[in-house]
Backbone:
């Protein structure tokens, strides 16, 4: 069964609808305890739109932060979408230090989240996305595919080997990462038509780099 992390963020319903369209059995995860080894889930998705600091505060308050770290450390299938990608990093320019104390992310991928340098922010709409040749997440998709984006910040991994795809908006940047059973994307596959559903199907079928 696929679990969708329910931590109070928006846009969770569209992810669930996409999974149902693919004929998958899925349900919302109601507590971090359900992510334990005795839980019912084989794979989890961490989706959502939102502010980095607010999202991390919610994850820490509910205990999802440590539960998600432990899931990823155990190399269990994980897919992050939008804020679910950004939260994997160490810090974000969207959340400057408060009283000298940095707002930390999950810190499972070294790097930071930065704001686009241009004036037309956020990026809203479709953008071409170029995947790496060895990416299992993008297997069977065109090398350059179009996906739907809505965001003002982008991720910058320290380790280039985790980058699975990139696009350009004011500058070239990473839009997907893969590492073991971990995968995450900046765009919204659940809002990206046939190619988005294909990408989700790849992930469900084991489409992540090993």
Residues:
């Amino acid at each position: 069964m696929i679990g969708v992390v329910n931590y109070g963020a928006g846009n969770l319903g569209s992810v669930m609808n996409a999974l149902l369209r693919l004929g998958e059995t899925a349900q919302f995860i109601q507590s971090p305890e359900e992510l334990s080894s005795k839980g019912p889930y084989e794979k989890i998705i961490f989706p959502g739109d939102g502010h980095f600091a607010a999202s991390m505060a919610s994850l820490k308050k509910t205990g999802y932060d440590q539960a998600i770290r432990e899931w990823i450390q155990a190399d269990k299938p994980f897919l992050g979408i939008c804020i679910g990608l950004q939260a994997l990093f160490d810090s974000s320019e969207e959340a400057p230090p408060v009283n000298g104390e940095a707002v930390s992310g999950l810190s499972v991928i070294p790097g930071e989240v930065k704001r686009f340098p241009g004036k037309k922010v956020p990026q809203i709409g479709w953008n071409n996305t170029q995947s790496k040749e060895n990416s299992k997440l993008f297997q069977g998709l065109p090398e350059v595919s179009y996906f739907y984006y809505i965001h003002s910040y982008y991720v910058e991994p320290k380790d280039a080997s985790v980058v699975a795809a990139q696009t350009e908006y004011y500058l070239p940047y990473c839009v997907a990462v893969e590492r073991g059973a971990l995968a995450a994307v900046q765009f919204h596959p659940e809002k990206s038509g046939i190619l988005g559903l294909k990408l989700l199907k790849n992930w469900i079928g084991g489409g992540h780099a090993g």
